[in-house]
Amino acid sequence: MNERTIPFPEGHCAVPHCAELLLDTLTQHHGIGAVALDAERRELRIRYDPATISRATVQQIADRVGVQLGERFHRCVFALNGVSCRGCGGAIEHRLRGREGIIWSSANPASRRLAVEYAGTPEQLPEITRAIDRAGVQVHGAVGTTGRAPQPEEEETWWQRYHLVVATTATLVFLVSGWLLGRLGLIPPAVQTGLYVLTYLAGGFYATRQAIASLLQRSVDIDLLMVLAALGAATIGGWVEGGMLLFLFSLGNTLEHYALDRTHRAVRALMELSPPDALVVRDGQEIHVPVEELIIGDTVIVKPGERIPIDGRVLAGESAVDQSPITGESLPVGKRPNDPVFAGTINGHGLLRIQVERLAQESTLAKIVRIVEEARSRKSRTQHFTDAFEGAYAIGVIVASALVVIIPVVFLGRDFHEMFYRAMTLLVVASPCALVISTPASILSALANGARRGILFKGAVHLENVGVVDTVAFDKTGTLTMGQPRVTDVITVDGVDTREMLLLAAAVERLSEHPLGNAVVEYAAALGIPALADEEVADLQSVPGRGVRAVVRGQVLRIGNEALLENEGLALPEALRAPADALREQGKTLMFVGTDRPLGVIAVADVIRPVAPAVIDALHRLGVKRTIILTGDNERAARAIARQVGIDEWRAGLLPEEKLATIRDLQRQGAMVAMVGDGVNDAPALATANIGIAMGAAGTDVALETADVVLMADDLTKLPYAIELSRTARRVIRQNLTFALGVIVVLVTATLLGEVPLPLGVVGHEGSTIIVVLNGLRLLRFAQPALATRTIDPHAAQVAAAD
């Protein structure tokens, strides 16, 4: 048997149902033995007998079957309304299961999208929309699968954004007021009961609404259990216990809603990188059109300082383009005719005419948006288990409580009031109050500890997962490096004064406004070299792609790459060429300086963060097995950085999708991967990695919003601290869960045997809650020893004279 791998085109369906039909259909052909579909890579791996069927025939069959299925099944994405919790995604999918025409659905609360695949024709979309509406799912507008939604989403009102915060706060205020004022005797019992009723209304409204909606769809969830447990407690006088349960449950929903809102804004920030319209030449006229209306072959004009709206190729003009949002390159990249450019990047000093090569929905930026949304929609194993456990636990407790009343009363002749009292006690002791608060108590303490030290975890799952990371991938620019070019080396030819050369170079570069020029100016100022007056510099000229030329103190000064000097008839002496080659090998950018002869060379690089080596050492001591650099920069720069800081591996010249592929390869090898980055180009990798970690001050909004953990102070030393904090939190959580579950088992068993009166059940239940809270609060005092002091001085530039 031979094996043939065939790319699976974007236009063909790849959801589970469609994939099963595809595999079944292919295996029916004589000569095809087995078919496997890699949905992530969108590849078909077909094993076939070459003596029976040819390779070309296999390709033709796969293409034909894929097209046929693509005509039978269609996929549509809707904007999703009314989703305020992570678990709502599973409930929505359950409601749509088996609905007329719908064969598959995936609700993604993070990006507020509902993807649906249905059998039929595109003309049947209105019927599908009505079926979704009948299932009680609120959607508006089919937005398709493009990177930019064709229609803008409605802005949330103040109430939509903060309604859960208001409800949770009101629950706490009413509960504390009723308990405290009643204990002090300041209010009569009727008023106290009224405050408790208000507590139940505020804390139980949304849970009750969700429970009723689930019941109408023949589904039972933990919302129903929480409401029944609270009502059961109230029935036998346990208003405070029921109110505490509702408050904690409401608080958890509020935190989840906040996290989902941050994730949704991440996708919106990605979309806003691309301008909404473009200046295009049509019929000899320059007109502004929406980027969605651009077609392949259009000529787009991009002025200095503007964002490039589309992926294409330069037709005319020269400029330096900041590609860091897409490729991660630390320095602007020179662009000439026939060079490629990307949507979302920033044009520099020159006007560019660009020919469109990709539609807006297929641009590199649009792909990043789709990758982030898809990565966010995937469910973890824990989430799948929780979805299944929720209904079973709720039904089990409800059934058990009902049986505690029915069996003794009907079959054993026991007193109804006695057994109802015992059943309500069972609802109280079986309600997972200690279980509910055991994890939040520990998590909130760990989050507070991290926040005080500049570490922001975006949720409990991320705090827990950081501690099991065994592979850390780093973006280079702005993460391991400072993200700003600085002078690292100054070498002059024999007889040339270094300070004099820097004086002349800084005078010219002060007027050039180029990022590399700014590095020279700042370095000269740091050495105390005085600045020349602007009138001493004349005839400043930019030589695109090579450098600048100006007259300083009556002599022509040239600053740029080697091609500039050679074009001006200045050959580099061997004494300067050898050290220049060595600097290039270190991944540094060289700026040659010359008048009527070469004077020297200034090396500029995005220098390493001083603490980077100590951080890598700490990670290795913590048991991290592999460290790797993923960068869009060149091979020499990546190799030089890796060797200096002690990183094990590096991958250079990577585009965003290639970084993503590397992360997935590592995960397929069984690695638990953390990705540390700061740019938009890191967003897909940050979202797909088991843990995405963004640098704070240096990071783009998208990277910060997309990541699971943010180093707020742009402090890389907090990375090993976060790992150790996570490991400690995991230990405390395990302790709390074991203890809380043990107490529930003991109390439930004793209650069923009739040995636990309600007051004792409440004491045991609340006592276990207090113990797990106190244990969790220990994380507030967690501290880690200081890192080793191996550092690099970013200001230590080498100044030498060439022999």
SSE blueprint and pairings:
Elements: E1 2-7, H1 16-27, E2 32-38, E3 43-48, H2 55-72, E4 73-80, H3 88-96, E5 102-108, E6 113-119, H4 125-134, E7 139-142, H5 158-183, H6 189-216, H7 222-235, H8 239-271, E8 277-282, E9 285-290, E10 299-302, E11 312-316, E12 319-322, E13 333-335, E14 340-341, E15 346-347, E16 352-356, H9 364-377, H10 381-412, H11 416-430, H12 433-452, E17 455-457, H13 460-466, E18 471-474, H14 476-480, E19 481-492, H15 498-512, H16 515-526, E20 537-543, E21 547-552, E22 555-560, H17 562-567, H18 574-585, E23 589-594, E24 598-608, H19 612-621, E25 626-630, H20 635-645, E26 649-651, H21 656-668, E27 673-677, H22 683-688, E28 691-695, H23 701-706, E29 709-711, H24 718-752, H25 758-777, E30 798-801
Parallel strand pairs: 18-25, 18-27, 19-30, 25-26, 27-28, 28-29
Antiparallel strand pairs: 1-3, 2-3, 4-6, 4-7, 5-6, 8-9, 8-10, 10-16, 11-14, 11-16, 12-13, 12-15, 17-29, 19-24, 20-21, 21-22, 22-23, 23-24
Helix pairs in contact: 1-2, 5-6, 5-8, 6-7, 6-8, 7-8, 7-10, 7-11, 8-9, 8-12, 10-11, 11-24, 11-25, 12-24, 12-25, 13-24, 15-16, 24-25
Short structural summary:
This protein is of the alpha+beta class.
Would you kindly provide a written description of the structure presented here, covering whatever features stand out?
Helix content is 48%, strand content 20%. The protein has 25 helices and 30 strands. The chain has a seven-stranded mixed sheet, with helices on both faces. Strands 20-21-22-23-24-19-30 form a seven-stranded mixed sheet. Helix 11 (416-430) packs antiparallel against helix 24. It is globular and about 110 Å long. The termini are far apart.
